[in-house]
Amino acid sequence: MQALWLENQALEMRELPVPVPVDGQALIIMSLAGICSTDLELVRGYYPYSGIPGHEFVGQVVSSPSDASWEGKRVVGEINIACGDCEMCQAGVPRHCMHRKTLGIREWHGVFAEYLVLPLSNLHLVPETIPDEIAVFTEPTAAACEILEQIEIRPRDKLGIIGAGRLGQLLAQVLNTTGCDLSVIIRHQKQKELLTRQNIRSQTIDEIHSAKYDVIVEATGSSEGLLLAKELIRPRGKIVLKSTYKGEICLDLSPFVVDEITLIGSRCGSFQPALQLLSAGRVNPLPLIETVYPLDQAVQAFKHAAQPGVFKILIKPFV
Fold first, then answer.
1. Tens digits of residue pLDDT in 180-190
2. Would you state the pLDDT for residue 206?
């Protein structure tokens, strides 16, 4: 099969054997996959991963040795492969398994290939009402929904999102469903235009005048975003971190203590709430799609995705 291979921060196309599922797993033919910021950070050296990258996908189950009822089903898949036995798994939090592998990120080949393998426990059926071009956004939409599991957001809350890129746009749509007083801090006109389509307010840094927020979501991927969040949060407010940063950040923690600010890390989320929002049309990711590349042009697709201001680049086996 054709596959995109990452090693020593370099990408190349390779011909690899089709993976073979064991009991409890499914072989999936990839229909559509998305490049996200984490994939780009892996290429920049965020984590020393070698293998097939990618974790956002929709596909169809080809074979399932232990449960043939999955065969032919259209699915998306959660990215954390849990051991099932550790303390976190037994506590019902497999996303934080102490021995987890991560699709396309850590010790498990990802989705930028013709086929992939995942445990059946990771799979979710895609409703017929959701086309592939929307279903491929399930994983990042679930990551946005995770915030709603972590904190209560009330209609009277003043909430700001710093960063209006790939994830920031989805965060804005998901959090806007709470009815809160939402504003997204943008840098580019295109970001503003996409948010305006969803009737979401946006502003530049220069347009902010001594605003203080109850909740700030930091999604810039830059340490400067965290510093700005500190400036904009009110005492006893909450800062939700959606960015992963390469290397260390020098941060004065004293103001966080004095102002009693809560820092909340936020990573993966549950797929069912995301699928419900996508199915109901309450989140519409279609305007975020820039273009679709065939799998054999995946290296070029990554170069395109890495350009400033580019939103979602998708990859499929055949275009």
1. 999 999 998 99
2. 85
Mind giving me the DSSP string for 274-300?
A: HHHHHHHTSS--GGGEEEEEEGGGHHH
Report d(CA 123, CA 24) in Å as an integer: 11
pLDDT tens string 74-102: 999 999 999 999 999 999 999 999 999 99
Segment 207-259, tens digit of pLDDT: 887 779 999 999 998 888 888 999 999 999 999 999 876 667 788 889 899 99
Best CA proximity match to 80, nearest among 60, 61, 108: 108
Cα→Cα distances 75→8, 32, 42, 186, Å: 31, 11, 25, 34
Q: 79, 271 in Cβ contact below 8 A?
A: no
Domain residue ranges in the chain: 2-137+285-316, 143-265
Euclidean distance between CA atoms 214 and 238, whole angstroms: 6
CATH number of 2-137+285-316: 3.90.180.10
Q: 47 falls in which pLDDT band (50, 70, 90)? A: confident
Backbone angles phi, psi at 225, to 5 degrees: -65, -40
Element (H or E) spanning 192, and its range?
helix 189-197
CB 76 within 8 A of CB 58: yes
Unique residue bearing structure tokens 């009693």: 260
- Lookup: tokens for 65: 């040795």
Q: What is the pTM of this model?
A: 0.95
DSSP-derived pairing of the beta strands 233-241 and 101-102? unpaired
Topology, domain 143-265: Rossmann fold (3.40.50)
